[in-house]
Amino acid sequence: MPRSAGSGRPRDPEVDRRVAAAAIGLFGAEGWSGFSIEAVAKRAGVGKASIYLRWPTKEALLLDAVRQYVGEVTEIEATSVREELIRLALQLFRHYLGDTGRAAMRLALDADRIPAVAGHWAKIRESQILAARAIVRRAIRRGELPEGTSVTLLLDTLCGAVVNHVHATPPSAQAKLADSAESYARDLVDFLLPNVS
CB burial class (10 A; 0-12, 13-18, 19+) of residue 53? Predict the structure, then answer.
């Protein structure tokens, strides 16, 4: 978390925003090995001192940026398992696209090397599991999925397909991918459901 401003000049929220955006963009592009206060300062167009006044370490800066930009999967409830899985897939698309998406992918690789961030990343992963588990339980209660449906296989297939689709799409086509996400999510769920029900 940024430090409190104390009795000095009030902090400029625009600088806070630029630094956090630069931090998440840099981490997405370079990973933890290329992440430094100096590089974030250069990318944000601010002095290193401005960053150190707000964040005492690069770990604290990255954690704050991750908290702002890489959110947890929220609870999903609709009238059918199909609609719920489509909504989950769309949340995952938003999670993995753009600068934030590249950072989320890097977190999957680097989070265990960054103790300050590891716990938050674990919460994000857990939110995906809990959302999928709730969807499966409701679907079983409604008779849409059989007892014993594997949450793990369902989540691995859905999440893996979304992540692979984003990862395999060249950066130049990412904007187009965002426009077609809903269509892909529907096709993916329609392909997946007959194999688990």
Answer: middle
- Mean pLDDT within 74-100: 85
Average pLDDT of every residue of the chain: 86
Answer yes or no: do 89 and 174 share one domain.
yes
- For residue 9, the model assigns a pLDDT of 47
Q: How far is the CA of 26 from the CAs of 42, 113, 123, 165, in angstroms?
A: 10, 17, 22, 22
* CATH code (residue 114): 1.10.357.10
- Domains in the chain, number: 2
Rounded average pLDDT over 166-191: 88
- CA 130, 176, 34, 32: dihedral to nearest 10 degrees? 0
84, two tokens: 């719920």
Contacts of 22 (CB under 8 A, 6+ apart): 40, 41, 43, 44
Report how far apart, in Å, the C-alpha atoms of 4 and of each of 11, 52, 55, 75, 165 are.
9, 12, 10, 32, 41
Q: Is the pTM value of this prediction over 0.85? A: no
Query: Is residue 89 domain-shared with residue 47, that is, in the same domain?
Result: no
